[in-house]
Specification:
Elements lengths: L1 E2 L14 H10 L5 E8 L9 E6 L4 H21 L3 E7 L7 H4 L10 E8 L3 H9 L1 H38 L1
Parallel strand pairs: 2-5, 3-4
Antiparallel strand pairs: 1-2, 3-5
Length: 171
């Protein structure tokens, strides 16, 4: 799911085109942000919660993605009634989710996050998701609007971060 300036959102499926193909298609819309919707799974059915993966190899954009990721993870966890596992940073090939979120790379790349909304391997999480799916949808939508607002402010945000680093260097 991506947000863009000319349309509120586009939905891009990776069926038959894979992850790289889906990102290529998504990037062709000139998005303001990209959020992949997933659900987690683990061999231990007690594993549960909501988390967001972000790529920490993006320099200034990483701080922006991290802040949005915190809000997204918290909003979805609250909507579903699951544990907020927060933001997980990915920086290396082979780490779960890195290949996905690193597809939108480069200085002009939009923020890219991977939302693991719940554990499908957890009966409790799955029941919560089924019961609260509409609330989760609205919470994701609310965070998308936050994305749009903050993306308009992103140049300001980056200047602010650069200035903060400069001040720290002086001190």
């Amino acid at each position: 799911i991506i947000t863009s300036t000319d349309k509120p959102y586009y939905i891009v499926y990776r069926d038959n085109i894979g992850i790289a193909g889906a990102y290529e298609k998504a990037l062709s819309y000139n998005p303001k942000c990209i959020v992949e919707l997933h659900f987690n799974s683990y061999k231990n059915s007690q594993a549960s919660g909501t988390e967001v993966l972000v790529c920490n190899t993006k320099g200034e954009n990483f701080l922006y993605e991290y802040e949005i990721g915190k809000r997204l993870s918290s909003a979805v966890a609250n909507a579903l009634g699951t544990r907020d596992r927060r933001v997980k940073e990915r920086s290396k090939k082979g780490e779960r989710g890195f290949y996905n979120i690193s597809q939108a790379a480069g200085p002009d790349a939009p923020p890219s996050l991977l939302l693991e909304s719940f554990f499908g391997s957890s009966v409790d999480d799955s029941l919560k998701a089924r019961k609260n799916i509409k609330v989760m949808d609205f919470s994701i939508f609310d965070v998308f609007w936050l994305f749009l607002i903050l993306s308009a402010l992103q140049p300001w945000w980056q200047r602010r971060q650069t200035e903060a680093k400069r001040i720290q260097t002086i001190q």
